[in-house]
Please model this.
Amino acid sequence: MKTNIGILLFILSVTCFANTSAQECSDVLFMKKGALLTYTDYSKKGKELSSTVHETISVTQENEEHHAVIKATKKDKKGKETFATNFNTRCNGGLFSVDMMRFMDYDKLSEQQKEGVALEIDGDVLEFPVNSNVGDELDDGHINLKLNSQGFTLVTMTFDIKNRKIIGEENITTPAGTFACQKITFDFESKFGFIKVKGSGIEWYHDNVVVIKSESYNKKGNLTGYHQLTGIQ
Model:
C-alpha cells in the first residue's frame, strides 16, 4: 500500500500556547474561513505527482473551544480532482488537535470510490501539548476505516502514527517561503486488507502550527517520497 503522510502525512498537529486567546487561535492560518493551503507531492527523485488543497470551510467558537472544518481535495498532476473529504481541527485550553483522517492515503481511498460504497470512520486525533520543546515525546494516533456495501464490509484500512518526537529546529525553504521550524520524527504502520506497510517520517512545523514539509521512508530507511507547502492564500 502506498502511504502518503501528511504524507502522509501535513502532519497538521499544532500547539496553542498557555492562556490561548480567541485572537491567538484565529491567528492560525487554517483557522480562518476561506483559507487555502496547497501541498504538492513528489517522488523520491523530486518528480511532481499530485497536490492537495486544504480549504477552511467553517470556523466556530463555543466557550474556550475553537473549531474548524477543513475540506481536503486531492488532485492529480493535471489538476483533476480524484478525492475529497473533510476533517476537523480544534483549539482548546492551549491544545490544538487534528483528526487522523487528515493523514490517510487519499490516493488509496480514491481507488475505492464506487457507487453504493460507504466509508465508516473511527479514529483518534493528533495533539501537541502546550509549549512543546525539543526532546518532547508526543502522543500516538490511530484510525480505522471500513468500506461497506449493502451491509457488508468490503475492506478495512488502518493507519497508526507512533513514537513522535521533537528532535530539533531548522529553517526550511519551499515555494511558499522560508520558515523557522520544529523537526519531528515518527513511525507509521498502515494496513489495507492483508497488506501491511511500515515506515517512518520526518515533518517540519513552522511555529508548531503549519506543516511545511513531510518526508516518508520505508522500513529500510530509504526515502519513498515527500510533500511540501507550495501555496498560501
Q: What stands out?
A: The radius of gyration is 17 Å.
